[in-house]
Specification:
- The protein has 5 helices and 5 strands.
- With about 110 residues, the chain is α/β, with parallel strands linked by helices.
- It has a single domain, classed as Udp-n-acetylmuramoylalanyl-d-glutamate--2,6- Diaminopimelate Ligase, Chain: A, domain 1.
- It has a 5-stranded mixed beta sheet, sandwiched between helices.
- Helix 4 links the parallel strand 4 and strand 5.
- The radius of gyration is 12 Å and the shape is globular.
């Protein structure tokens, strides 16, 4: 499933990475501890987090994530958004809780297996 499809189904707001919406989402990872995300997430994952600081962009870039979903209507900090645009990392915003977003993405990806 591509990022654009996930965005439409979950009604996510795109804050950066508009040119990357055809990126394939291969899985997901939910977590706020950067060292945990670096150790356990995979390439192609859609990362669900509440963190908004610029280090999330560095981790997503390093791990080659499909994008980052910020939950509970969290908005990226200004420097985070600038870095995401520069690095080409999609940042998406959801009004839902991390629990709800994770469940919905999981169910979407299971349907496409």
């Amino acid at each position: 499933m591509d990022l654009e499809s996930v965005i439409k189904v979950l009604n996510l707001k795109v804050r950066s990475g508009e040119d990357k919406l055809k990126t394939e989402v291969r899985g997901g990872y939910a977590g706020d501890l950067l060292s945990d995300v670096m150790a356990n997430s995979k390439e192609g994952d859609l990362w669900i987090t509440r963190q908004v600081h610029q280090n999330i962009v560095a981790v997503a870039s390093l791990k080659e994530h499909a994008g980052i979903v910020l939950v509970q209507d969290s908005e990226p900090a200004k420097d985070t958004l600038e870095k995401a645009i520069k690095e080409g990392i999609p940042i998406l915003v959801s009004e839902l809780s991390g629990f709800e977003v994770t469940a919905r993405i999981y169910n979407l990806l299971k349907k496409t297996d």
